UniProtKB/TrEMBL annotation:
<keyword id="KW-0458">Lysosome</keyword>
<keyword id="KW-0333">Golgi apparatus</keyword>
<dbReference type="GO" id="GO:0008270">
    <property type="term" value="F:zinc ion binding"/>
</dbReference>
<dbReference type="GO" id="GO:0016236">
    <property type="term" value="P:macroautophagy"/>
</dbReference>
<feature type="domain" description="RING-type">
    <location>
        <begin position="766"/>
        <end position="814"/>
    </location>
</feature>
<dbReference type="GO" id="GO:0015630">
    <property type="term" value="C:microtubule cytoskeleton"/>
</dbReference>
<comment type="similarity">
    <text>Belongs to the VPS41 family.</text>
</comment>
<protein>
    <recommendedName>
        <fullName>Vacuolar protein sorting-associated protein 41 homolog</fullName>
    </recommendedName>
</protein>
<keyword id="KW-0479">Metal-binding</keyword>
<dbReference type="GO" id="GO:0009267">
    <property type="term" value="P:cellular response to starvation"/>
</dbReference>
<dbReference type="InterPro" id="IPR045111">
    <property type="entry name" value="Vps41/Vps8"/>
</dbReference>
<keyword id="KW-0967">Endosome</keyword>
<dbReference type="GO" id="GO:0034058">
    <property type="term" value="P:endosomal vesicle fusion"/>
</dbReference>
<keyword id="KW-0472">Membrane</keyword>
<feature type="compositionally biased region" description="Acidic residues">
    <location>
        <begin position="14"/>
        <end position="26"/>
    </location>
</feature>
<dbReference type="GO" id="GO:1902774">
    <property type="term" value="P:late endosome to lysosome transport"/>
</dbReference>
<dbReference type="InterPro" id="IPR057780">
    <property type="entry name" value="Beta-prop_Vps41"/>
</dbReference>
Length: 829
């Protein structure tokens, strides 16, 4: 129906074919269909001359003077042969015979109301018919004398009509003509190029004549401007020229629908011919317009039609536009979302079509989102975009298991199972196991890494595990050392809960997941005979695991398993000792040899920390291996400090270490031995002079130095001794001053405290007899003794002081060795 439909019935059609434009990528705004049924039958014998549109029916006038009432599908419902006003839903009728042909008629928009029984007819004059108060019709001439009136449009209280001179507007209320809009191109015959009128609203009139379009606005005149002028006036708010001749106008929101009559010149014959009419949607501006869309319409017999033969009528409620020509009636309507999707699919814009369907799924009637999605997948597959097609399956197929299986088989036929494998559903829905097995076999034949990835990612219950295990075994027969297949087989065994076989493969591969597998599935009973393998793989992790699970694998069992691998045995026992010094006490004797052989730096710390180590055995091993430091420690721990000191001096020749050892032992005999050994060795004497001052009187050493012996740095050593001595004297004097000052301060504080009074009341008791310290009878004489420690006694309750000392002390504080408190107060009455 729209652009670029060929006609091959003559030279004019050939010219039309030559001028066809290529199909535009821009989506059309309207869609078209012919009005058929009864219309087709009418136009086979007659020709359409005019048409009017109602929401519920159509009225079609023909050249033979017939008027047909049609339904919206074009079926004939009624037929009239004379001009009349006839109530379709009432018995009201008006018949009249005119003395000249009637070119146009318009009925009051609210004719059904009793107050609006009016209509106008146009011919050589414009007549207004209205019913009087006696139900008689009377006519009034509104205008005449300017040629035939060929177009009349009535809206609200305004009637607009066009004659040979221009367009007039009449106000039915004020009975005044309020404007005259002259036609622009007077060279055009008004009967061949008639004026097109349409009301956009009650005050906006659109005029199309020739190639000119004007938009007029009816406005109220200000009271101060009226004088003898009409109360309203017209302002042209927009005026522009079109490329072709205007045959009809209709409003569409804030845009215009323009039916244009087109004449073109043939390039071959250089003759002018009638081309297909155009239906354009334009956006009017103040002095120009912007074309939104343009469609060339192939109507029947367009080659013989003139501008006056075309009419454009519209239904305001539904945005339907009727293009009327003598031999055809075409209906144009705004494209809905289904039409938009049709166009996108036609242009192979499947993704946009799918998106549009999803957004407007409640409004689309002819399309289903799933059908569009499947078409999109097929398009991608045909184009070779297998990965995109597979990815789109997730969104489009959703939870439809049957469609998923269908698409998988389709991908299998084109050899692209790998493309769809990452997107297969794994939970909801779950496909048949055969689908997953088919894809796994595909990968197993060509891509071991991809196969391993799927086994890791897919849950084990999606496929028959035993079938896949057997397939992997068959491949391992050809390549038994393939690590990827071995690792995958171990994972399959794990899914199948065959943990023993899985553990064996992991250990063979020295795979990091072996410890996780043991922990996760509590396989400690299976590794009791594989401890050496675990230690060889990762001794740190293995030892930590064994020590963390002593209740499952005992220390004794581990030590026995590692008996032939003493280096691993040492690693285990060393970490056990670090965790707890007492758990492996039965192996401490063995550990001495292990430390001596494999880890000497930790032997001495072990000997120091262990309380279960046999010292004689340790001493024997250390002496055999000539471990001096360890031997010195053992000798000193066994009480043989002299031998230890001798070894330090004779074996290590380290005077500082010897002095440090003597300091630790704090034994005078050791210092004596050290001095005797060092007396003939000047370097040793220097070391002693520098360090002996705080432990032994340096004079003892200095007196023993032989006269004439040359001692390195003697002067510096003697100066240091004197400085140390002076420092000690200063420290003692300083301490003495501090002590005296503190003693004096405390004595003053004690004196102030003892000078303070002590409260004695009825709540206090005698610490001896435990009765109230004050008598209940205040007139009775009493005597109370209060000590500085705040203990109180009746005088008669205290023992008599001894003959040797007249001072009396608190019995309680004296018994608790708190220091005696002398009596501070004696109260008598």
């Amino acid at each position: 129906m729209a652009e670029a439909e060929e006609q091959e019935t003559g030279s004019l059609e050939e010219s039309t074919d030559e001028s066809e434009e290529e199909e535009s990528e821009e989506e059309p705004k309207l869609k078209y269909e012919r009005l058929s049924n009864g219309v087709t039958e009418i136009l086979q014998k007659d020709a359409a001359s005019c048409m009017t549109v109602h929401d519920k029916f159509l009225a079609l006038g023909t050249h033979y003077g017939k008027v047909y009432l049609l339904d919206v599908q074009g079926n004939i419902t009624q037929k009239f042969d004379v001009v009349q006003v006839f109530g379709l839903y009432s018995g009201e009728e008006f018949h009249e015979t005119f003395d000249c042909p009637i070119k146009i008629i318009a009925v009051h928009p609210h004719f059904v109301r009793s107050s609006c029984k009016q209509f106008v007819t146009g011919g050589k004059k414009l007549l207004l018919f209205e019913r009087s108060w006696m139900n008689r019709w009377k006519s009034v001439v509104l205008h005449e004398g300017e040629g035939n009136i060929r177009s009349v449009k009535w809206r609200g209280h305004l009637i607009a009509w066009a004659n040979n001179m221009g367009v007039k507007i009449f106000d039915i209320i004020s009975k005044q003509r309020i404007t005259n809009v002259p036609r622009d191109d007077i060279s055009l015959r008004p009967d061949m190029y008639p004026c097109s009128l349409c009301w956009k609203d009650n005050v906006t009139l659109i005029i199309g004549w020739g190639t000119s379009v004007k938009i007029c606005s009816v406005k109220e005149r200000h009271a101060s401007e009226m004088r003898d002028l009409p109360s309203r006036y017209v302002e042209i708010v927009s005026q522009f020229e079109t490329e072709f001749y205007v045959s009809g106008l209709a409003p569409l929101c804030d845009q215009l629908v323009v039916l244009s009559y087109v004449k073109e010149i043939s390039e071959k014959t250089e003759r002018e011919y009638c081309a297909r009419p155009r239906l354009d949607i334009i956006q009017p501006l103040s002095e120009t317009c912007e074309e939104i869309s343009s469609d060339a319409l192939t109507v029947r017999g367009f080659q013989e039609n003139e501008c006056r033969d075309y009419h454009l009528e519209y239904s305001e409620g539904e945005s339907l536009f009727y293009i009327v020509s003598p031999r055809d009636v075409v209906v144009a309507k705004e494209r809905d979302q289904d039409d938009h999707i049709d166009w996108l699919l036609e242009k192979k814009k499947y993704e946009e079509a799918l998106m549009a369907a999803e957004i407007s799924q409640k409004n689309i009637k002819r399309h289903k989102i799933l059908d569009i999605g499947l078409a999109y997948i097929n398009h991608l597959v045909e184009r070779g975009d297998y990965d995109i097609a597979a990815r789109k399956c997730q969104k489009i197929l959703g939870k439809n298991a049957a469609l998923w299986e269908y698409e998988v088989y389709k991908f299998k036929e084109i050899g692209q199972l790998k493309a769809i494998s990452p997107y297969l559903p794994r939970g909801d829905p779950v496909l048949k196991p055969l689908i997953y097995e088919m894809i796994l076999h595909e990968f197993l034949e060509s891509d071991y890494e991809g196969f391993a990835t799927l086994i890791r990612e897919w849950p084990g219950d999606l496929y028959n595990n035993s079938v896949i295990v057997q397939a992997v075994r068959d491949h391992l027969k050809k390549d038994s050392q393939n690590k990827t297949l071995l690792k995958t087989l171990a994972e399959l065994y794990t899914y199948d809960k065959n943990y023993g076989n899985a553990l064996e493969i992991y250990l063979t591969l020295r795979h990091k997941d072996v410890f996780q597998l043991i922990h996760k599935h509590n396989l400690f009973s299976s590794i009791k005979d594989k401890i050496v393998l675990l230690m060889d793989f990762d001794s740190e992790k293995a030892v930590d695991m064994l020590l963390d699970n002593e209740d499952k694998i005992s220390i004794k069992k581990v030590v026995e398993e590692l008996e032939d691998r003493p280096e691993l045995q040492h690693v285990y026992l060393h970490k056990l000792f670090k965790r707890d010094h007492h758990k492996g006490q039965r192996y401490h004797e063995k550990q001495i040899s292990l430390y001596a052989e494999y880890d000497r730096p930790n032997l001495l710390p072990f000997l120091r920390d262990s309380t279960h180590c046999p010292l004689e055995k340790a001493l024997e091993i250390c002496q055999q291996r000539n471990f001096v430091e360890e031997t010195v420690y053992l000798l000193s721990r066994m009480g043989n400090s002299r031998s230890a000191l001798k070894m330090i001096m004779e074996e290590l020749h380290d005077v500082d270490k010897a002095i440090e050892f003597a300091k630790e032992q704090d034994d005078g005999e050791l210092w004596e031995d050290l001095i005797l050994y060092s007396i003939d060795k000047p370097p040793f004497i220097t070391g002693l002079l520098n360090n002996i001052g705080t432990h032994v009187d340096p004079i003892l050493l200095i007196h023993r130095i032989k006269e004439g012996m040359e001692i390195p740095n003697l002067r510096d050593s003697l100066v240091k001794i004197l400085q140390d001595y002076n420092l000690q004297i200063l420290l003692r004097e300083g301490c003495k001053k501090i002590l005296v000052a503190d003693s004096l301060s405390l004595l003053k504080k004690m004196h102030r405290t003892q000078m303070k009074g002590v409260l004695v009341d009825e709540e206090n008791i005698c610490e001896s007899c435990l009765s109230p310290i004050l008598p209940s009878d205040a007139a009775k004489p009493f005597s109370v003794v209060v000590f500085h420690c705040r203990h109180m006694f009746h005088k008669e309750c205290l023992p008599m002081p001894s003959m040797n000392s007249a001072a009396q002390f608190c019995n309680i504080c004296s018994a608790k060795n708190r220091g005696p408190g002398s009596a501070i107060l004696e109260m008598k009455k």
